[in-house]
Amino acid sequence: MRPFLRTLSILWLVLWLPLAQANSPEIRHWQLDNGARVYFVQTETLPIVDLRVTFDAGAARDGEQAGLARLTNSLLSQGAAGLNADELALAFESVGARYSSGSERDMAWLQLRSLTRPEALTAATDTLAMILAAPEFPEADLERQRRQMLVALQAERQSPPTIAERALYEALYGDHPYASAPQGTEDSVRALSREAVVEFHEQYYTAGNAVLAIVGDLSANEARELSERLLADLPAGDRAPQLPEPEPPEPQTVHIPYPSAQTHVLIGQLGIARGDEDYFPLYVGNHILGGSGLVSMLVHEMRERRGLSYSSYSYFVPSAERGPFILGTQVRADRTGEALEVLENLFVEFRAEGPSADRLQAAQENITGSFPLNIDSNRKIVGYVSMIGFYGLPLDHLDTFIGQVEAVTQAAIVSSFQNRLDPEHRVRILVGPEGILADEDE
Amino acid sequence: MRPFLRTLSILWLVLWLPLAQANSPEIRHWQLDNGARVYFVQTETLPIVDLRVTFDAGAARDGEQAGLARLTNSLLSQGAAGLNADELALAFESVGARYSSGSERDMAWLQLRSLTRPEALTAATDTLAMILAAPEFPEADLERQRRQMLVALQAERQSPPTIAERALYEALYGDHPYASAPQGTEDSVRALSREAVVEFHEQYYTAGNAVLAIVGDLSANEARELSERLLADLPAGDRAPQLPEPEPPEPQTVHIPYPSAQTHVLIGQLGIARGDEDYFPLYVGNHILGGSGLVSMLVHEMRERRGLSYSSYSYFVPSAERGPFILGTQVRADRTGEALEVLENLFVEFRAEGPSADRLQAAQENITGSFPLNIDSNRKIVGYVSMIGFYGLPLDHLDTFIGQVEAVTQAAIVSSFQNRLDPEHRVRILVGPEGILADEDE
């Protein structure tokens, strides 16, 4: 059979495969000599490999230089090992590979999708290895990137949701590293130097601080060789030190004037760290309270019953240290006070009593029934595997997910909401026109 | 085994399945009594169904009322069978289904992703059936949608690429229906009436004018039942009449003044209809000329050799009738004339001589090697299957794709470019500062 016909047949084949006997899911894990942790899931449905290298090098490591983690991450592919940005892009494109990168509070990452054909995979891996270990941070690209960050910060001033989120983290975290925004401030971005970028890269982009997730059509041996080839040139380095524990904030209301007809409301408190033993009851409880979009209790109360707001929601941001738990809504400005009262009362009531048996069962069915959508592509799986590796979650996290959701009881939701959340220590952020609350002081 | 464990096992199973003996790919096709054409691909990797209903109801059917097809399509989910927009959204969301819709020049479509669990699939299908057959086009939603279209048209005036594209279609197609933009004009959008929307829906959203593509984990019987359930309430109606053949345009240069440092350049001529027998040599030839992003001859000449432009490209838009073939670039305004000359000379030379043997081989390997990326999700497959059904392409189009690409010769590229393209009948669109060409008249 001609090779291209064989490729095609294999491809179609897997789309038509009858289900055979069951295997167990498996995340294989190993550590390289230089300290890098590797997590591998073998999939055989397509001749494609997705991989992500994650470093504990997010904005929480910015220190006084807000925006440094993001600038460093965005410059990696602008020049490395003697190749400029165009040549690096061409090296990926000519073998059909796709590269991207990003950074948030906890982590910074580089991601690659490549075909498994050996010549494509080798070329793409070698290019990524150069970007990882030998970035050059050219001055001209740094200035361009700085200008882009400043333009983005200007745009942010026109966006009430972004203004509110920044203010929420500041109010909730005070002196803790989570307080400052990954995108920095205009002053901090102007002050970032190439020297700081080089130092940040040397300190945090090391093997000891790295987690590599690989998902794709490779044997375990091939994945091991790939991991060594990709990360061999990284210096060993150290794992970043643990972040301090955040302190619960003083209760406060921050009102940021904005000329809009609606008020953007966020109410935040400290939530949970990744790996918290109460994760599942909190996850299911939040789904019922405000996590499930149009069918949550918050939407029912705020929109259906009172016509206060089209959009109301709640969510946890589980992080290396306690991330926020947030209740939010947008509401017609003259009804801001009423909306705050309804949101906060509903939360207090839910925390005291939990959901009804009907709502709990519906939520469990909704979550477990739609779980397939969460892992319906290699790209989504590589995201989960990275998260499991980065936060040190059990390797069977995905395997046990549905069972853990099914096991949640009404009593567990009540006790977890009472143990982990404390509405006395909440901050409220209001972005909207002035004079929306009769009494804005506390 | 408990049901949720079984679901999970099946899911993981398919990710780990070893390759078994080959099956042939298969698109099954049938026609319903009311005339609707159905195309079905059975996939068993995930408990998910993706489906798309396509109507010959795109902007080419707008007549004098530019924007009518888009307005009609966007209003479908705003109210149907007594349910309002929120209730319809909730009906999808409560069973984990995702709905979207859209329209372009040739077609308008509705798309649904649902879990295969019978209660979820039935509920999602019934909701979509209501949206298809019993939309209500509420006046208030029509006005809101009209305002959104007007805002989008204002934004368009700030976007040189969109300005250029609109001007290209106008210059290239003259009186032909393809001349007018799917988004309409400010005047035409202001004039659209609810009555016109209702008439458009009655005429074009019929079974005889519909193609349904289904991709997912269903048996052929289940897919057949789904197709009947979904489309049973559509009136039979007629298939839309064939569009007229477009005439080649008079050569012309249109310069639209815009205060930018760069000129946005498009050079357009009539290309091919879907199903053209020269499709594959044109596709491979264009990949080499300007279709492959950073590795094309256009980029090599314009960027690497002359430093004229970062971005240069060419593409076909195969359509029901001859769609455009477009060469494009962005260039520093003071080098616009030089860029035009280089682009046009390169095209004329390529049309006369075709690619080198090396470039041809590299392109064939690049296209066939990265073909898996084109069909790596059900969503992409449903797009291809819709296209095959809508344009009446051979059912084995995907199956033979790689073989057809491999079979393209240098001689076939030259003769297809000479047969199908005629640089004498081209239009040039320049969007950029005034005075960029020494002589703008022809």
TrEMBL record, chains A, B:
Residues 39-181 form the Peptidase M16 N-terminal domain. It holds the Pfam family Peptidase_M16. One of its GO terms (molecular function) is metal ion binding. It comes from the Bacteria. SUPFAM superfamilies: LuxS/MPP-like metallohydrolase. Residues 192-366 form the Peptidase M16 C-terminal domain. PANTHER family: METALLOPROTEASE, PROCESSING PROTEASE. This is Peptidase M16. The lineage of its organism: Bacteria, Pseudomonadati, Pseudomonadota, Gammaproteobacteria, Chromatiales.
